Please model this.
Amino acid sequence: MSEIRPIEWANGTLRLLDQTLLPSQEVIVEAHGYLEAVDAIKTMRVRGAPAIGVTAAYAVAMAARELDSPDRDRFLQRLAEAGAVIKAARPTAVNLMWAVDRMVALANTQSGIADIRERLMSEAITIEKEDEAINRKMGSHGKELMPDGGSVLTHCNAGALATAAFGTAVGVIRAGWEDGKRFKVFNTETRPFLQGARLTAWEFKQLGIPSTLIVDSAAGMLMRRGEIGCVITGADRIAANGDTANKIGTYTLAVLAKENGIPFYVAAPISTVDLSLSNGDEIEIEQRSQTEVTEFRGVRIAPDGVEALNPGFDVTPARYVSAIITEAGVARPPYTDSLALAAKAAR
Ligand code: MRU
Model:
């Protein structure tokens, strides 16, 4: 099976598998400058927290190549300004801010502009490689939680497409499957952007893992009937206490899981853990266009003039989360202690 890698740096260009066109078309879009990379994040050609982080790292490296100044300090100032533009592309996934901060901090340790340019490009490549290695580690920790027999439900797309390769929640499912465990996989369509129907279902097909697509609102009924053994999702930002922001609808699934006595797992790298936030109320939630709700592929589906609300994410309080799988292992409640320890171990 060939690995799905949605981001590639080749011949001075950032090549991205356009996730707005999948699964009907597999098209590579090229970002020639850092602002084109920012645009690809904004328009969701590349999406998913770790993939946004990797793209942001390349965007900083590209900005360093594009910007010029005879003076190192002025150059670093302009690079920081470009970093602020990159960070503003989307608000919720902290991997974006994490990657930009790591790159800009590294630039500040370099003595000359040529060194900065060279070092930042090699760091972006490192961040991409690290992401795949981290996901494989998460898979090896998380596969123990996957059932042999029974079933697993996942939401949105937390697969290879949302990362450099392998995926987070889908990576754990894959690792369990590659370990020889056999279980039924359900994935939600994930209204309104349909990351589940378009992307996760496509990935499971590529992986040769049979999956069943359900509408988001079917999950409760399946759980009540005993057809879901556990739920596993990715995350866009996890506060120090374990409150988890992820794709809209995740909170609903977590509450339903608890009501039905089903474990609810989150798989995310430490770069998604924001220890600066004590709880999830402090996480900024992206508000997306009304037309994603009132239209389907450009065709109006709601009466003219109807108002729609379209939050892209929600926050699941930590009390609904049975475990958080990171590259440092499986963290259990109380998360204020276990996530701090995991973050320390990952450093
Ligand atoms: O709006 P998206 O598609 O970027 O949202 C993606 C998610 O919510 C994912 O579940 C999350 O980023 C984890 S990806 C490994």
Notes: Residues 245 and 315 are 4 Å apart (CA to CA).
